[in-house]
Design a protein that fits this description.
By secondary structure, this protein is of the alpha/beta class. Helix content is 30%, strand content 20%. The chain has helices at 58-68, 114-121, 144-151, 169-179, 184-197, 213-225, 243-258, 270-275, and strands at residues 12-13, 75-83, 89-98, 103-107, 129-134, 137-138, 154-157, 231-235, 262-266, 280-284, 287-292. The strands form two sheets. Strands 1-11-10-4-9-8-7 form a seven-stranded mixed β-sheet, sandwiched between helices. Strand 5 and strand 6 (137-138) form a beta hairpin. Helix 4 (169-179) packs across helix 5 (184-197) and helix 4 runs parallel beside helix 6. The chain is globular.
Amino acid sequence: MPTTTTTLSKPVTASTPERAVHHSQRAPFQGTATQCNTPTPATIAPGEQEPAPPRTSAQQRRKSQTQAEPAAPMVALEQVSKIYRQGSCGLKEVNLSLPTGSFLFVTGPSGSGKTTLLKLLYGAERPSEGSITVNNQEIHGLKGDRLSRFRRQLGVVFQDYKLIPNRTVSENVAFALWAQGCKKGDIARRLAPTLRLVGLQHKAECFPSQLSGGEQQRVSLARAIVGTPPLILADEPTGNLDPENSRQVIRILNKLNAMGATVVVTTHDLQLVKQSHHPVIQLNQGKLSWLRK
């Protein structure tokens, strides 16, 4: 259905190969263990000579140099174009660098390339030109099992929910973990806190037909995040929702972002965008420009 796009501010055309979105430093969504067992240095008795420090191995020096390097972006597109067989242009020479822990809104009219961008990021489409890197992995050439393994690192939220009608809320959310071969205990351990996060613990045994549209979208969101993916891609997640349910979905995405997840949301709802402080890009006829950085 055609929509009217309201410009937030005068777009700034992205002319450089890489435009990084500013973000605060956060711990990764898939947290790492904290080292708490550092030994206390031994006390040196008076008159004793302090032993020489151990030599640093080449491996340790390389590790130290690696740690000092800046973190790689979660998402990087370099000169990416997508031309469909009938000749229509999905994206045209798009450059984008998205640091880990960012939250990005993608706006634009229908047919501008928003869904194409997300499909390229989760491997449903391949670029005609350019390269795409997601979570330190080049994805534009992935196929078969390698593509399936890559997609397990992502959480994808669809506008039309894509729930299994004859399965309960719990079963729909757990489906992603079953597909990955998780054990029952692991599924149970992840399921309860995920349903609490989206406010649906009291609907765990309901079927999709017994839920409102907003509740069904939150089930879709829970299914996407139950595996704690580092990157969440949401394609028009508020497109079929009323304003209150839309705000609730964005609040959940903000919580996940605060926990360290990188979030990319496509939307027509510029009112939601205006109410947020997150960076915003606009796609128009396949070209990318910045509305807010």
